[in-house]
Amino acid sequence: MKKQAIGFIGAGNLAMPIINNLIESGYDLYCYNRTREKLQSVEGKVTIGNNIREVCDHTTIIFSLIADDPGLRKICLSEGGLTSCMKPGTIHVSMSTVSPAIAAELEATHQQKGFTYIASPIMGRPEAAAAKKLGICIAGETIAKESVKEILPEMGAAAVYDFGEKAASANVAKLGINFMIAAAMETISEVFDMVNANGVKPEEFYAMAAQNLFNCPIYKNYGEIILAKKFDTPQFYARLGLKDMILVNEAAEIKEINMPLGKVLKTNYQKVVDMGLGEKDWAVLAVAANGE
Amino acid sequence: MKKQAIGFIGAGNLAMPIINNLIESGYDLYCYNRTREKLQSVEGKVTIGNNIREVCDHTTIIFSLIADDPGLRKICLSEGGLTSCMKPGTIHVSMSTVSPAIAAELEATHQQKGFTYIASPIMGRPEAAAAKKLGICIAGETIAKESVKEILPEMGAAAVYDFGEKAASANVAKLGINFMIAAAMETISEVFDMVNANGVKPEEFYAMAAQNLFNCPIYKNYGEIILAKKFDTPQFYARLGLKDMILVNEAAEIKEINMPLGKVLKTNYQKVVDMGLGEKDWAVLAVAANGE
Predict the structure, then answer these.
(1) Given an 8 Å threshold on Cβ–Cβ distance, is A177 in contact with B215?
(2) For B101, which residue in chain A has the nearest alpha carbon?
(3) What does the alpha-carbon distance between residue B157 and residue B176 come to, in Å, rounded to a whole number?
(4) What is the least distance, in Å, from the CA of A204 to any CA of chain B?
(5) Is the ipTM of this complex over 0.90?
(6) CB B29 within 8 Å of CB B251
(7) How many helices (H) and strands (E) does chain A have?
(8) Is the CB of A166 less than 8 angstroms away from the CB of B218?
(9) Mutate which of B171, B181, B221, B259 to disrupt the A interface (most A C-beta within 10 Å)?
(10) Which positions 192-221 of B are in contact with A (Cβ < 8 Å)?
(11) What is the nearest CA distance from B178 to chain A, expressed in angstroms?
(12) Which of B140, B69, B119, B142 is nearest to B99 (CA)?
């Protein structure tokens, strides 16, 4: 017997392993994606809706995982979008990395219309989702949040971090983490260039750093990716890195906070996107300063 | 019976626990420091020289740990300095964090005069020295280097990283590490300010980051120091942070390497030093952006 019905909007790189985890766990899944072909691999294992309404008709908890603010706004507020189709009382769990501002706005819109908006952005790449090693931030109304928390481990969460009652707080935390990751990549890139130009092999320098003071997943993984210049198998696109660094800078500017490193990261992601590298892995940031 | 005679020049925060480790290991130590009082705690356990010559007369391996390039230049090249007093064939092990340029220059000067200059800058704070958990970079002439490597664990090295035959390479690597540490502190400082201004408690955000993707000594230690604003018990001075970031930028500029983050770090250390915070712990970088 199948478990409860769950809706899922989106079918990107990160969504697919999560959908597969939910299938394995026996959920009755209703999926929708604007480009239906992206759901091909799960055809027959889930019900694929022709539109958002066909998902809403069968579910009272719907997850969405969308690339950016405009995309999320569209699936929520456009004609035939979630807030015009969901059944009363439905919980919408928004897993996208979006601005705190849109999270606050959509939380209010949902509430006004009798829905609950929970923010639960994801930390981790598709391979971590497949291995159920994701970290997930969560924030929003307490009762709805507790029922969401029961499902997250089956989606691939190894750890769930609760940031309270305001949905936007989860997005603030997620942006903070993405800023830290991008900052680590910028650090690695600059130091590799500096030591290399001064006669020290980056791989020897890196072995020392990753073995000792910087012995943690981010430095180990991205250090290896940058050393090997493995930018062609994107797990997270550089154009999304640019999007996130723009969001980080906006979140700082709106509160008059100085982030000089935040500005460097936005500038350098703009540079790699302008170089036509937006579809590469976001570690391609490494070529912003001194080229390939 | 005492082990071999060893010279040690310098008596700063990091030198003292190293000297104590050598005493415990039974070496016959000849120490010198410009300010003799700083050696008070080891009086009776080591021979304290009145000048550099009195150290040179008794030893053929001399370690030095000095704050900066001018200080190192002085103890090496001034009248009564090492290169005018050392016995032929003496190995001078320079543990200071100095520029690759001065390391290359002094290596040549030593060689011309029949001495060997080994660079072995230290990674770690005084408490790590006391606990024998230091990382030490080393580079220079192979045979001399091997004899130095036998002593380093007794000085407090848990790990020794060999960067080859050119002394300057060890300094390049050390500057790279200090750049990475300062970059991590800048990252932590900026993200704490950003999340805090947007309604997320830095300590909750930090618990997530340090438990997961950034679970390594640098982020854990400096995250706690910055959260608690523990800048008044300096293990490494902010003014030395400025000195090191100037050296990093010079090493990059000399090779025409772009380091935008390097520039941010130099600017912000200059700012805290200008604010009169040069004698605080270098984690005081955290106040550069948005004040205390």
Answers:
(1) no
(2) A198
(3) 19
(4) 8
(5) yes
(6) no
(7) 13, 9
(8) no
(9) B259
(10) 193-195, 197-200, 204-205, 207-209, 211-219
(11) 10
(12) B69
What DSSP string runs through B29-96?
EEEE-SSGGGGGGGBTTBEEPSSHHHHHTT-SEEEE--SSHHHHHHHHHSTTSHHHHSPTT-EEEE-S
Q: What pLDDT, in 10s, does the model give residues B189-228?
A: 999 999 999 999 999 999 999 987 899 989 999 999 999 9
Distance of CA A92 to the CA centre of its chain: 16
Residue A31 in 3-state DSSP? Answer: strand
Vertex A256: Cα angle to A253 and A262 (nearest 5): 50
Distances (CA, A) of A235 to A32, A59, A222, A273: 22, 30, 12, 16
What is the DSSP secondary structure assignment for residue A13, as one 8-state letter? T
Look at residues B121, B120, B94 and name the one whose alpha carbon lies nearest to residue B106: B94
Q: What is the CA radius of gyration of chain A?
A: 20
The CA–CA distances, whole Å, from A241 to A177, A286, B170, B194, B275 equal 12, 12, 34, 18, 35
Q: In what order do the strands lie in the sheet with B5-9?
A: B47-48, B28-32, B5-9, B61-64, B91-94, B116-119
Judged by CB atoms closer than 8 Å, whether chains meet at A195 and B176 is answered as yes
Q: Which amino acid is at B29?
A: L
Token look-up 């180990």 returns: A220
User: Using CA atoms, how far apart are residues A291 and A281, in angstroms rounded to an integer?
Assistant: 15
Is residue A185 a contact partner of residue A157, using CB atoms and an 8 Å limit?
no
Report the predicted TM-score, pTM, of the whole model to 2 decimal places: 0.93
Helix H or strand E encompassing B103: helix B100-112
Query: CA-CA distance, A117 to A108, in Å (whole number)?
Result: 8
B52 backbone dihedrals φ, ψ, rounded to 5°:
-65, -35
Q: List the structure tokens of B133.
A: 């958990």
Q: How many CB atoms lie within 10 A of CB B142?
A: 9
* Active site residue ranges of B: 174
| Confidence band, pLDDT 50/70/90 cuts, at residue A189 | very high
CB B92 within 8 A of CB B148: no
- What digits encode the pLDDT tens for the residues B222-263? 999 999 999 999 989 999 999 999 999 999 999 999 999 999
Q: Which residues of B touch A159 (CB under 8 A)?
A: 211-212
Name the residue with tokens 């022709």.
A50
Q: Which long-range contacts (CB under 8 A, 24 or more apart) does B140-144 make?
A: B140/B107, B140/B116, B140/B165, B140/B166, B140/B167, B140/B170, B141/B116, B141/B165, B144/B91, B144/B116, B144/B118
Nearest-angstrom CA–CA distance, B226 and B210: 13
Q: Across the interface, do A190 and B258 touch by the CB < 8 Å criterion?
A: yes
Query: CA of A164: which chain B residue's CA is closest?
Result: B200
Written as six digits, the tokens of A101 are 């501002």
